[in-house]
Q: What sequence folds into this?
């Protein structure tokens, strides 16, 4: 602000004790910064320090000396490669399904009258408000062998044998898509609402059919929202634990599940921490890419519940 | 049906021509709503087996729940942990948001980055790191341990809500109070706090819910006499489908809805 700078100059010229005033201001700002100290300390003690400790562990051999053996094992053992492959596969599939289901939904919502759209938004937000475990339980009840969907399907004669809908990849994907869909719909809807409808009128006026107008005009304009949403979904998927553990029935092992298994079953801190470091690096990498497209704070919102 | 042939958007596509789009959108919305909607009637079923809609109604799963010492203990732990988390995270988060917002240091972005990391880092990682340290400190399976860990997850949320309220608040009002002789703390308490109180209350409810719903941290850090409800539910889900969980789920949906309704009421009044 040039006005403020000019005012400061004027003050400085008029008051010889400007230096003292500035020192006072600095002291006050320091004191204000100090207000964040308790929160900072708590997060530091309860998270940052343990994480640093954990990362240190990943570089220690069993005898306590520095070594890269845990990382070497990550590369050497094909089972770890498979786990990373599964993680990427599941995350990519979830993202793709979320786009396929979420984009059309956002498109319809963006064209509905505001009041109706807000009512429909409740449906989108409802999963946000329902505890993760409640939803997981509901999916188990719906999808298992003697679950509701199989009962209905057989009663209606749609299929004869119970379908294997849960305790496998299908169940995991259904659960994860359900959790991640709102994270895709909301940014896409935001981007779509910002699109000036006159562009579409112009396109139609110039002879473009509905399909062409959509793909040449509307879709590219909604791209930023779609990209942002898809990246958030993908990043959050990388760290999933509960859904693959329960709905995957031990058959879908993602990185988080392996980390937990290494600790709970094998007490193998070295392997778990090395996996953790790799997962964190990957997550940060994608997050960095995402931050090129969008504001940092806008990416969060409810991200903790997975 | 005149509506079907009416133009639906700027591009002359008719409603009839994109009926499939409406059907798809409706199905996706059903998909989103079904799990939440289905547990409530299921919890009142009389049958051991899953039925929807239930053929007979009963409260036996609620009886089961309320007469089970271990579920009751877990529920008590969850409420205690959530309440204490709220008491810790709300003031700390509010203070931090205020301090960072008003100090206007360039380093502030770095500090807020650190404070926001608990949201980004996969929770499993934080959980095992915290577990590792808690083992050394003897905090595993203690209420203190859960509250500390949950507060760390909740503080960033409180900060985000309060910071966004501060952004739309005119800080000059506080300056006026101070030029009239109020101390900074008094100016904050008398002038600023009342005006951002809805954000603070929303933050408090959010931190309560964060703790109440949290699973992964609870799996590692809680246990024994201090198992949380979510930990017990997770383990029960892995074993077999006990309709008691439908009853607990319904109660959790109820608790969440009440809190969110409160948050809405307080949040909207701005």
A:
């Amino acid at each position: 602000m040039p006005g403020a700078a000019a005012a400061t100059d004027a003050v400085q010229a008029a008051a010889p004790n400007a230096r003292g005033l500035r020192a006072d201001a600095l002291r006050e700002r320091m004191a204000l910064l100090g207000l964040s100290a308790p929160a900072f300390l708590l997060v530091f003690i309860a998270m940052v320090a343990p994480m640093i400790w954990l990362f240190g562990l990943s570089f220690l051999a069993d005898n306590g000396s520095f070594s890269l053996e845990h990382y070497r094992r990550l590369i050497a053992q094909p089972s770890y490669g498979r786990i990373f492959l599964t993680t990427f596969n599941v995350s990519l599939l979830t993202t793709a399904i979320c786009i396929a289901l979420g984009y059309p939904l956002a498109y319809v919502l963006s064209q509905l009258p505001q009041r109706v759209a807000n009512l429909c938004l409740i449906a989108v937000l409802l999963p946000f408000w329902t505890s993760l475990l409640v939803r997981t339980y509901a999916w188990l009840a719906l999808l298992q062998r003697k679950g509701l969907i199989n009962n209905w399907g057989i009663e209606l004669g749609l299929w004869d044998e119970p379908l294997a809908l849960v305790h496998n990849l299908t169940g995991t994907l259904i659960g994860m898509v359900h959790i991640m869909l709102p994270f895709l719909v909301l940014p896409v809807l935001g981007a779509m609402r910002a699109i000036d409808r006159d562009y579409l009128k112009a396109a139609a006026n110039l002879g473009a059919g509905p399909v062409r107008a959509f793909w040449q005009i509307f879709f590219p304009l909604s791209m930023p929202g779609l990209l942002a949403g898809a990246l958030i979904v993908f990043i959050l998927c990388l760290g999933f634990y509960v859904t693959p553990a329960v709905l995957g029935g031990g058959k879908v092992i993602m990185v988080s599940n392996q980390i937990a298994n290494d600790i709970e079953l094998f007490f193998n801190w070295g392997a778990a921490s090395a996996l953790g470091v790799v997962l964190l690096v990957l997550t940060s990498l994608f997050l960095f890419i995402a931050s090129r497209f969008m504001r940092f704070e806008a990416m969060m919102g409810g991200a903790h519940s997975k | 049906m005149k509506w079907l042939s009416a133009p639906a958007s700027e591009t002359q596509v008719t409603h009839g021509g994109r009926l499939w789009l409406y059907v798809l959108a409706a199905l996706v919305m059903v998909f989103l709503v079904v799990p939440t909607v289905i547990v409530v009637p299921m919890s009142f079923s009389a049958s051991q087996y899953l039925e929807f809609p239930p053929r007979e109604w009963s409260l036996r799963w609620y009886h089961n729940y309320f007469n089970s010492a271990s579920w009751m203990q877990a529920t008590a732990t969850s409420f205690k942990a959530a309440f204490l988390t709220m008491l810790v995270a709300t003031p700390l988060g509010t203070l931090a948001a205020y301090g960072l917002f008003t100090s206007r240091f360039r380093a502030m972005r770095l500090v807020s980055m650190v404070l926001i990391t608990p949201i980004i880092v996969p929770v499993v990682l934080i959980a095992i790191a915290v577990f590792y340290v808690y083992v050394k400190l003897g905090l595993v399976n203690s209420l203190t341990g859960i509250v500390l860990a949950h507060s760390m997850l909740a503080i960033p949320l409180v900060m985000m809500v309060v910071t966004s309220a501060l952004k739309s608040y005119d800080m000059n009002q506080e300056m006026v109070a101070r030029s009239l002789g109020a101390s900074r703390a008094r100016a904050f308490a008398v002038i600023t706090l009342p005006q951002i109180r809805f954000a603070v209350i929303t933050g408090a409810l959010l931190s309560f819910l964060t703790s109440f719903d949290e699973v992964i941290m609870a799996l590692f850090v809680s246990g024994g006499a201090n198992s949380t409800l979510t930990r017990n539910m997770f383990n029960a889900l892995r074993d077999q489908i006990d309709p008691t969980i439908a009853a607990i789920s319904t109660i959790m949906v109820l608790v969440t809805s009440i809190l969110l309704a409160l948050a809405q009421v307080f949040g909207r009044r701005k």
In short: The radius of gyration of chain A is 26 Å. Chain A has two domains: 1-35, 83-299.
